[in-house]
Q: What sequence folds into this?
């Protein structure tokens, strides 16, 4: 389980690409590598990945076809940065919302509006997940737990404070970038239950 509170940025230092498979090696801050072990889960751009090998703060992950086809990780290049969060432990503060690290799909950044103290980012709102993207609801974007500020039929936006831009990769992104999305599981459960109930009522 993850909280959506990104702990920092990691840099891509090696990529081995094969047919529908990729080994990704990242360099994490040393302070975030305590008690690390093979088999541990780390969210990379919100995607739950398993540590397959590590040497100090250099950590490798194996990505299969399903991950490469669903997330933005397959488009990474050497030198790129990603958001990371180590799995939450019992007793940890849940500052965001509970997240599984299971990415639904990617969405594109449509516009970035910056001022001195704020940054507003607009994203496309695909029909496949539109019903789960509601005003003031939660969404996971590249692993960040964020609140939807405004929702329109074909787009939605979030507001980012300077600290979020400093810690995450959002300060480096541009219009057209593909962003991993995980919808809030509680919102999904409620929406799906209501839709199923209404469908069954109509069939009576």
A:
């Amino acid at each position: 389980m993850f909280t959506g509170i990104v702990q920092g940025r990691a840099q891509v230092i090696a990529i081995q690409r094969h047919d529908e498979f990729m080994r990704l090696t990242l360099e994490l801050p040393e302070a975030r590598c305590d008690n690390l072990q093979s088999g541990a889960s780390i969210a990379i751009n919100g995607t739950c990945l398993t540590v397959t090998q590590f040497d100090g703060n250099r950590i490798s992950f194996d990505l299969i076809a399903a991950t490469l086809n669903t997330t933005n990780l397959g488009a990474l290049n050497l030198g790129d940065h990603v958001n990371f969060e180590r799995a939450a432990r019992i007793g940890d503060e849940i500052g965001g919302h509970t997240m599984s690290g299971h990415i639904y799909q990617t969405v594109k950044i449509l516009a970035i509006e910056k001022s001195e103290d704020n940054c507003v980012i607009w994203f496309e709102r695909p029909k496949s997940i539109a019903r789960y993207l509601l005003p003031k609801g939660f969404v996971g974007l590249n692993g960040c737990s964020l609140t939807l500020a405004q929702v329109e039929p074909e787009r939605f936006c979030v507001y980012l404070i300077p600290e979020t831009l400093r810690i995450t990769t959002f300060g480096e992104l541009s219009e057209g970038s593909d962003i991993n999305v995980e919808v809030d599981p509680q919102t999904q459960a409620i929406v799906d239950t209501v839709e199923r109930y209404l469908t069954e009522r109509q069939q009576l």
About this structure: The chain has three helices and 13 strands. The chain has a mean pLDDT of 93. Helices lie at 65-70, 162-167, 185-203. The longest strand covers residues 8-18.
